[in-house]
Amino acid sequence: MDQNCEEVSVIKELLDKKLKKDVFADKVEKETFIECKVGNFIFFINLKDVYIILDFKPLVEIPGAPPHLLGLVYYQGEVIPILDLKSYLNQTLVQKTIDTRYVIIKAKDELLGIFVDESSKMISIPKPSIEPVDEELFSFKCKYQNDEIKILDVLKCYNVFKID
After folding, report:
1. Section 11-38 average pLDDT
2. C-alpha span between 132 and 151 (Å, rounded)
3. What is the dihedral of CA 102, 106, 107, 112, to 10 degrees?
4. Which residues form the signal peptide (predicted)?
């Protein structure tokens, strides 16, 4: 009978360790991102910076606007400029498809839209795997499915494309 008690004790101890390990594993802080695609370039935008994602609709064109400003879209009384990042990302012409979206971001209390070929899913990345990078539109990068993915810095984007 003592051997059974000892075995039960060992099993309980192992289960306790397993439970503690699982609880600890779940406490790793994560950031949630929206995956976006412009041409063949995939990047993430932090979900906390995304105001809304809109389906493609015709834009109001602005005569004499810089090439990166595609036009304006109206959403719930807001006039939102829509930006084309393809030249900054060294991509060819962005094609309008059924998956085309406007990812509306909020920076400095202003809304900016980013024209993307696709914005298909949300991704959670453990904070420890996010690393700094210093590029014109990006401040962080991470590994996702064996690929290095850059994370858009909305403040840098705002400063580069600031529209007066």
Report:
1. 73
2. 10
3. 30
4. none
How far apart, in whole angstroms, are the C-alpha atoms of residue 122 and residue 35? 6
Q: Which pair of tokens denotes residue 66?
A: 């810089």
Q: Which amino acid is at 38?
A: V
> For the segment 135-149, what is each residue's pLDDT rounded down to a tens digit?
889 999 999 988 999
Q: What is the mean pLDDT of the chain?
A: 85
Report whether 127 contacts 143 (CB < 8 A): no
Per-residue DSSP letter, 61: -
Cα–Cα separations (whole angstroms), residue 138 to 88, 120, 128, 156, 159: 11, 20, 18, 7, 12
Specify whether the CB–CB gap between 70 and 59 falls below 8 A. yes
Domains, the chain, with CATH or none? 28-161 (2.40.50.180)
pTM of this structure: 0.79
